[in-house]
Amino acid sequence: MAITKRYRNGKNGYVTPYLDYHYEGKRWTETLTHLKYKAGQNLTLVEKHDAKEKKQLLQRIVKEKELKLLMGDYEIIQKTTNKEDFIAYLENYIKNYPSKNDARIYTSMYNWFKRFAGKSRVFAFEIDEAYLRRFLKYLEANLNYETPLTYFKKLRKVIRLATKENLFRTDPSMGIQVKINETRSKDILTQKEIELLISAQCPNIQVKNSFIFALYTGLRFVDINLLTWKNITDNNLSFIQHKTNEPVSMPLHPTAIRCMGKKKAPSEKIFCLPSHTGCLKSICKWVKNAEIDKHITFHTARHSFGSNLVENGVDISVTARLLGHKSLKHTMRYVRTSPTLKLNAINTLPIFSTTQK
Fold first, then answer.
1. Which of 11, 58, 298, 320 would be 325's cystine partner, CB 3.0–4.6 Å?
2. What is the CATH number of the domain that holds 97?
């Protein structure tokens, strides 16, 4: 049994380490793309520090791998290398997942995982708690607010199933706790920016109408895409949320009513939309035409709806019911604190003279 460190020289002076495994006459390799560093004599201080850190991490990884082999984890290594890698397992899971909406989220998570891995195959024995922690940090460095949490939860669900199917001896994600990344809040649209959008040209009128409808109802993309005329009665909206399976009902704002257009048969969809990706492309061009310098997605409409209700003084419990939240705690996290409400709160305090007599 042996694990040997080796290195491949790449372009621009970069070196990629990889490990050679030898066990009972069998040999396989593991490329550590995430530990690639620049080598040479004329390095900057940053490059020297990066190389030093990655070499130290490489030493720790080798010790962890050697310990796993001694403890018997080679059984999982043999099984994995003989059958399928984890990326192939993940692809197969997404392909057979029943929910189209969740499959879209899983696909996004899968793309980020492949980007992080830097290669097309990742064996199960490569994925331990340290590997998953690095992936989580990668998500948190590149994505905002709840997205890293959402993606990691999806990956954890796949890993738990893979553990039951003996790809892992124990669940490597078990000891990892994930918190919402609140360092960067999501963009929302103000009332003035909504006016700019309504006046601007959008490449797809159905996307425009559905997005404005979401700005005045707080519906998610998946729920708007499923809406039919049977969900509308006397200018009131009633539907079951796809995500939570909870019922939501509300009176419709006149702007939302105008966005729906002429009433059709009960079974017909209110909005005929392209794919989620197609909608995002139209929204991107539309936002550019409106000269709004923000990162706007379809879900921004839901955030804007909740935030603008709070901004206009609507009680948080009413906002929660309109958003379909069962818990106020989630609404408080979902809708960022309004600057106007902060100012109004401060102004409720009495004013006293500070002049000494």
1. 320
2. 1.10.150.130
Do 313 and 223 belong together in one domain? yes
Last residue of a domain, one of 184, 204, 232: 184
The pTM of this model reads 0.60
Domain span at 335:
191-344
Tell me the residue type at 32.
Answer: L
User: What letter would DSSP give residue 267?
Assistant: T
Locate 95 and state its tokens: 């392909």
CA angle 238, 243, 246 (to 5 degrees): 45
335 and 227, same structural domain?
yes
- Which 3 state secondary structure label does DSSP give 5? strand
What's the burial of 173, exposed, middle or buried (CB within 10 Å: 0-12/13-18/19+)?
Answer: buried
Instruction: Specify the DSSP element, H or E, that contains 207.
Output: helix 205-215
pLDDT in the model for residue 81: 44
Quote the tokens at residue 278.
């197609």
Same domain, 91 and 47: no
pLDDT tens digits for 127-147?
888 899 999 988 888 877 778
Tell me whether residue 335 is in a domain: yes
Residues with Cβ < 8 Å from 43, sequence gap 6 or more?
51
User: Which whole-number Å values give the CA distances from 78 to 4, 22, 75, 129, 168, in the listed order?
Assistant: 18, 11, 5, 20, 12
3-state secondary structure of 172: coil
Which helix (H) or strand (E) covers residue 236, if one does? strand 236-240
Instruction: Tell me, yes or no, whether 350 lies in a domain.
Output: no
Smallest CA-to-CA distance from 218 within 161, 295, 153, 300 is with: 300
What's the token pair of residue 130? 């340290």
